[in-house]
């Protein structure tokens, strides 16, 4: 294993010798060529990781940050991207966007070592990973490759030494509960985000904590962790709205979920907010475009993207960060989707 100083950086020939393959085969693995047997590829990737190999320096990539996402076709992701790009422009840094994990022509997901090596070989300043669960093997590979990385709203629990950026999710969830309980709602449903998401768990905990504090019991059957997904939210909300005692208010863990609740209300003949109040989370543009415009907990998504980019640059130049988890404050934006619960108890649904 090479030392950081005093020892030459391992070259491709050393990787090939360590893996017991030809230099040409090692080169194919480094460059992502598909015509390498999986067992051989794994040996080369292991050698790359163990030796700390990094590809030849490329000056053109020396001012580039890679933003890696699983899904980009959401307003949430585009707002984050906007913040990253605007901050990068100020620092004359280029931004490239890619998927978190590449697949081969045969559909095989690249290993964590290959993922880390691909980023290291590009000689980028660092990487920003958006709302993905990477796992300790990937974090370890990135750490060994000395790649600065910042994770925005990680789906898995933070690893030691990895910097993450997000919002004050617990307080955001609490502010949603404070608003609905303050309006007089006692029978509330929560469509939460995935159970493995740190941010979703924090939002739910903040919401339920305030309800307990005020003596409002949220039924376990009216708490449903699902993906941050429109269609799943439609199914859950429609099921609840067809109950003999549908909730008078719903807190949705994302704007996409809230739009699903609106669709479920339309299908079952309920009016928002006359029959059911609705609070969303994120406050992307679709929240204000909805009919009615949605009361929402606003995440400062552009600022989160901006802070992530600035933090990657800070790590790249060797400056320490004040905290390994950066939280930016949320705010509640009240619009037309919330109101006090009806007092006449006449809430008709279509059968």
UniProtKB/TrEMBL annotation:
The protein, known as: LacI family DNA-binding transcriptional regulator
GO terms, molecular function: DNA binding
Native source species: Promicromonospora aerolata
Keyword terms, alphabetized: DNA-binding, Transcription, Transcription regulation
Taxonomy, superkingdom: Bacteria
InterPro entries hit by this protein: HTH_LacI, LacI/GalR-like_sensor, Lambda_DNA-bd_dom_sf, Peripla_BP_I
UniProt keyword Ligase present: no
Sequence ranges assigned to domain HTH lacI-type in this UniProt record: 10-64
UniProt xrefs under SMART domains: HTH_LACI
Entry keyword Signal: no
